[in-house]
Amino acid sequence: MPVRPASLLLAVAATVLLCSSAAAQSAPPAAEQPPVTAPEQPTAAPDPAPVPTVELDQTVVNVQTTMPLPRHKSYFKITHRFARDMRRGDIGDFFEDGLGTDQGSIIGLEYRFGLTSNLQLGIHRTILGKTINVFGKWDALRQPDGKPLGLSVGVSLEGQNNLHLDPQPGLSAMFSRMQGTWLALYANPTYVHNAHTPTLQAAHGDHTHGGTEPDADEEIPGEDSTDTVFIGLGLRARIRETVSIVAEVSPRLAGYRPDRAAWNVGIEKLTRGHVLQLNFGNSFDTTPGMVARGGSPHDVYMGFNLSRKF
């Protein structure tokens, strides 16, 4: 009996469907795969808050500190001393003179560079006598390294008329002691050679050099000496996170000792890398030789320092 093509096709199709259904029922179910999740990105730790420090600057006002200057970093400072004696006249006269700014000022510029992490060189120039002071400082001990105190050693050479007149070499040591993050104490024993020479001028234009002309009959301690030994004593006390008060005095111990010891007090503010200091003292002194010659017995001058590290 002949097979019809249509019947044959239907039989083949039925066979294929039955085989597919049996295979589907006998095959084990596929294991469920866990969902793929993106790896967690580590979260960056927040920057630690800066540790408060009381050692903000390379100087108190004039007294040197043991603050290091990092390798290949720079430091720049402007010193400004108004020439009007604040004790002259009354408060009305002081305001009429533009808070003392009408009488001119003594301006100094200073730059330091860190050769290494514990050795720095610098230069300071003031218009008072066109004095230039070149200096170096080596940090021998640091209290943060576990030492009981900080110690730096400094050498300097200054002279008037852009170092062409009265060269005055000096040698000093800087000791420091930090009390937590709120108080720093400093002592700078200093020796200055040629602090008193026949050609040193006690005046520059209309500006007295941190003192008054002595009476002819008044005996000046150490008048026959050309050298001076003094010790700069200073402190910096932090009263708020970015505000400190400063004070210093530099009594002469031996040698030429005219007038009174130079002193300064002030308040300063740290802001975005700058230290702005308003100070009051009895002289225009900004170099070791000037400090050796002392300050006025009675005058008080206003000034400021502005410094930055970069």
Q: What is the domain total for the residues?
A: 1
Number of strands: 15
Question: Helix share of residues?
Answer: 10-25%
* Rg, Å, rounded: 38 Å
Q: Give the overall pLDDT as a whole number.
A: 83
Structural class: mainly beta
What is the overall shape? globular
Helix and strand pattern: HEHEEEEHEEEEEEEEEHE
CATH superfamily caption: monomeric porin ompg
**SS field, number of helical segments:** 4
What fraction strand?
35-45%
Name the CATH architecture: Beta Barrel
* Spatial strand sequence of the major β-sheet: 1-2-3-4-5-6-7-10-11-13-14-15
The span between the termini is 109 Å
Largest sheet: 12 strands, antiparallel, barrel
Low-confidence stretches: 5-30, 45-51, 201-207
* CATH class wording: Mainly Beta
CATH topology: Porin
Give a description of the structure.
It is a single chain. The protein is mostly beta strands. The chain has one domain: monomeric porin ompg (Porin). 12% of the residues lie in helices and 42% in strands. The protein is built from four helices and 15 strands. The protein has helices at residues 5-26, 91-96, 160-163, 288-292; strands spanning 74-82, 105-116, 119-126, 131-141, 150-159, 165-179, 183-192, 203-204, 207-208, 228-240, 243-250, 252-255, 262-271, 274-281, 301-309. The chain has a twelve-stranded antiparallel barrel. A two-stranded antiparallel sheet has the order 8-9. A hairpin with a 2-residue loop joins strand 8 (203-204) and strand 9. The chain is globular and about 50 Å long. The chain starts with a helix and ends with a strand. Residues 5-30, 45-51 and 201-207 have low confidence and may be disordered.
